[in-house]
Design a protein that fits this description.
CATH class of the largest domain in chain B: Mainly Beta
Radius of gyration of chain A: 21 Å
CATH topology of the largest domain in chain B: Cyclophilin
Number of helices of chain B: 5
Order of helices and strands of chain B: EHEEHEHHEEEEEEEEHE
CATH superfamily of the largest domain in chain B: Cyclophilin-like
Strand content of chain B: 25-35%
Helix content of chain B: 10-25%
Shape of chain B: globular
Largest interface: A-B, 34 and 44 residues
Strand content of chain A: 25-35%
Largest sheet of chain A: 7 strands, mixed, barrel
Number of strands of chain B: 13
Structural class of chain A: alpha+beta
Oligomer: heterodimer
């Protein structure tokens, strides 16, 4: 029998995601894939496996899951409260889950999208070269309670590793480069755009997020009759009433509303993780600065496996503390965070 | 990188975009990751850390000089497809508004839109979703200032002398004037995309009853013939 994760309860809109499908732009299919690709890469690093492995994306909160066989898991992205059969699980870390054990994941403490990875990845059939659900395109669908998610062959064994916690979960400043239509906006409008404090609207999804602000909108001069052009994730589109929308991985492939600029890939994880009501600002950067940021982003992704360190146990969370041999306050033996 | 063949939609610029996109894909330029035509332009996605912008510009400029792209032939294997369409009613509630914007009566709007033989100029926005045109000049109506929250799959919408036929339920700034039963995107099929650039389409007026009869037919009752 292949291993599976039984879904007893799950957040609305949760879905299985990998790196998405490249190359279908000409057919109107946007790339899709994990809303926070950095979190996907972090999970792969913690489990020592390919970044092509599919994980479960949890928007806002998690759910209740049961393992049909022993498996390894990793938890990344927006930190959520998680327990394994009642014992707390450290976020941004990998853990062993025995057969029959239950993993319960609660609401996000910060950020928007949490990820539950399994060793071997979720083994759903590929469609157009990817296991990702593309909710906007109608490819696959959100995961429902009662579903069994098949788990692929796990070739690794390491658990009890963690990555440093990141700061990308509270909004902040996003770097933007000029795009094809930035010149459609008056210089004054662009300046005002960078001076404005925005908040993420509550209705954001995998396609994009509306950015709210006080004061006037950001209309382009004569922007309602322009031809539809290719859209990229990160593009900030201004609709007819002057409201900016940040377009994400599952957005349309083309659109006719003018775009004031494009958030650089290095800052997209921060953008998508901004919780509802979180504050965002935009700063235009030069092409050179954007290329340097891209170089750093890729270096960081490559370095992730080396940044994984063994979990240090928090003594207050060890139920059977007295059964451990304590030498100078250091626990010896199994430093993993879970039962064997 | 965007290679644009015009500021506004024209038949030669659309031909050029379709043909040039094929040529860029065939050129197999190292560092180019994706290439897709839109109405009058070609979007070339490349890895800027692997391929210098100046080098790509030089390659594409050379390719542009190789022929008159505005005179390029249409793609081969084109088809003429007649699609039963309900205009107006509660199925397509913005017909009246669109007619008003175009300065014609509702009856004239139906006659003009259902007579028009339009061409798939590009696929985009959503999976397998066509932009079709051109409609007569007075249909150069702007998008709405606010978005319609969602039109259903098969919705025929109009703006800037073009139709868009929706392949999935989606928000839009265009006006919903007709409804079809056509399923443009079939993700489980070997041929997931029904329409191709260059295909010609006529949205023939039909009653709600006729549309309901085709509800289970992915082709939505469409009649297809080859263009020779």
């Amino acid at each position: 029998m292949t291993a599976a994760l039984i879904v007893h309860r799950i957040a609305p809109g949760a879905s299985v995601q990998d790196n998405g499908r490249a190359g279908y732009r000409a057919y109107g299919v946007s790339r899709g894939g994990a809303a926070d690709p950095l979190a996907l890469a972090e999970g792969a690093a913690l489990l020592g496996q390919s970044t092509d492995c599919a994980a479960l994306e949890l928007p806002g909160s998690g759910g209740v899951f049961e393992a049909t066989a022993p498996m390894r898991i990793a938890l990344t992205g927006a930190p959520m409260r998680a327990v394994l059969d009642g014992s707390p699980l450290v976020w941004n870390a990998s853990h062993a889950v025995p057969a029959g054990a239950r993993v319960e994941i609660g609401g996000a403490v910060a950020g928007s999208y949490g990820y539950l990875h399994v060793g071997g990845g979720f083994d759903l059939p590929q469609r157009l070269g990817s296991r990702s659900a593309h909710l906007a395109a109608g490819i696959g669908s959100a995961v429902q309670a009662g579903q069994n998610l098949p788990v692929g062959q796990d070739t690794g064994s390491a658990v009890g590793l963690c990555l440093p916690h990141d700061t990308r979960f509270d909004g902040g400043a996003l770097r933007v480069v000029e795009s094809f239509q930035t010149a459609f906006f008056e210089v004054e409008t662009r300046a005002r755009f960078t001076e404005t404090a925005f908040t993420r609207d509550a209705r954001a999804n995998r396609m994009g997020m509306r950015l709210n602000s006080d004061g006037d909108g950001f209309a382009a001069s004569g922007g309602l009759n322009i031809l539809s052009e290719s859209i990229l994730p990160g593009d900030i589109q201004i609709t007819g009433d002057g409201t900016p929308y940040l377009l994400l991985w599952e957005s349309q492939t083309t659109g006719g509303y003018p775009r004031i600029g494009t958030v650089i890939p290095a800052d997209l994880p921060r953008a998508v993780q901004t919780p509802a009501g979180g504050a965002l600002r935009f700063r235009f950067v030069s092409r050179d600065e954007a290329l340097e940021a891209e170089r750093k982003r890729r270096d960081h992704l490559r370095a992730l496996p080396k940044l994984c360190t063994p979990l240090v146990r928090d003594p207050s969370q060890i139920r059977d503390l007295l059964s451990y041999q304590l030498i100078s306050g250091v626990t010896v033996g199994d430093t993993h965070d879970e039962k064997e | 990188m965007l290679v644009s063949f015009g500021e506004s939609l024209s038949e030669p610029a659309n031909r050029a975009a379709l043909a040039f996109s094929v040529a860029v894909a065939k050129a197999g330029i190292d560092g180019v990751e994706d290439c897709a035509p839109s109405l009058v332009s070609v979007f070339v996605q490349f890895d800027p850390l692997h391929l210098e912008l100046d080098a790509l510009t030089a390659r594409l400029t050379a390719l542009l000089g190789e022929r008159d792209w505005f005179a390029a032939p249409m793609p081969e294997g084109r088809r003429f497809i007649r699609v039963p369409t309900v205009y107006g009613t509660e199925l397509a509630p913005q017909l009246e508004e669109a007619a008003q914007a175009a300065g014609v009566s509702v009856a004239e709007a139906i006659a003009q839109l259902s007579d028009a033989r339009v061409r798939v100029q590009t696929i985009g926005f959503a999976p397998g979703q066509p932009y079709l045109g051109l409609l007569p000049e007075h249909w150069d109506i702007p998008r709405q200032t606010a978005l319609t929250k969602a039109v259903p799959e098969g919705a025929l919408v109009v703006a800037i002398r073009q139709f868009v036929l929706f392949s999935v339920s989606s928000p839009t700034g265009w006006r919903h004037v007709g409804q079809t039963a056509l399923k443009l995107f079939r993700p489980d099929s070997d041929m997931p995309f029904f329409l191709r650039p260059g295909d010609e389409v006529q949205f023939v007026e039909a009653s709600a009853d006729v549309l309901a009869r085709h509800a289970d037919d992915p082709d939505g009752g469409a009649v297809i013939e080859a263009i020779r």
